[in-house]
Amino acid sequence: EPGEVTVPLGPRETALLADMPWPLRRAEWLAGRRVAKRLLEQAVGLAPARVEVLPLESGAPRVHVDGGPRADLVLNLSHTKGWAVAAVATSRVGVDVCDDVDGVRIARIARRVFSEGEADACGAFRSRETQAAVWALKEAGLKLRIGGVFDPGARSVRVASLEPARVAAATMRVALLRLPDAAVALA
């Protein structure tokens, strides 16, 4: 949608938004909050005005209802210039969206994100779409493991296959979806 999306924000969310001077970052952040609050409303019946989505120290989102944290709900968000996605569960969950045009960045940082032979084995560089898919799978996997994407790093999630979507960790199940110009991964 053009311009900033409207979403009911709590006082702490309003303060976070006030500290974001960049219009693109603000728009993505608001879109993420809107999709999260809509999902929480549809999945568990929480009115958006009662919900705040606040960051933990790791940057991972935490659901707060009527001012207090809801430890029984695990929320994960991802947003780009064109898309915002969310996943909610009663245990750890990771979700990521990567625009196809941004997927090409993975080639520049391949040595930092791929284990030996991983890119060839999963066909990461066949197209912009496969690059976006690999990046989304890696980030969703990291978010599942630790709630954020910074440590232990993208190499710790080894993409084994894109069709079907599979990572090397036997304990992690993943799904890969296509949007018109982006990849969405759920772990």
Can you describe this structure?
The chain has 187 residues and is an alpha+beta fold. Helices cover 35% and strands 25% of the residues. The protein has helices spanning 11-18, 23-44, 100-103, 105-108, 110-113, 118-122, 128-146, and strands spanning 51-55, 61-65, 68-69, 74-79, 84-89, 95-99, 159-162, 165-167, 175-179, 182-186. It has a 3-stranded antiparallel β-sheet with strand order 1-2-3. Strand 7 and strand 8 (165-167) form a beta hairpin. The radius of gyration is 17 Å and the shape is globular.
Brief overview, please?
With 187 residues, the chain is α+β, with helices and mostly antiparallel strands.
Q: Which structural category do the helix and sheet elements fall into?
A: alpha+beta
Tally of separate helices: 7
Distance between the ends = 28 Å
Largest sheet: 3 strands, antiparallel
Describe the SSE topology:
Layout: H1 11-18, H2 23-44, E1 51-55, E2 61-65, E3 68-69, E4 74-79, E5 84-89, E6 95-99, H3 100-103, H4 105-108, H5 110-113, H6 118-122, H7 128-146, E7 159-162, E8 165-167, E9 175-179, E10 182-186
Antiparallel strand pairs: 1-2, 2-3, 4-5, 6-10, 7-8, 9-10
Key terms for this structure?
single chain, 187 residues, alpha+beta, three-stranded antiparallel beta sheet, 7 helices, globular
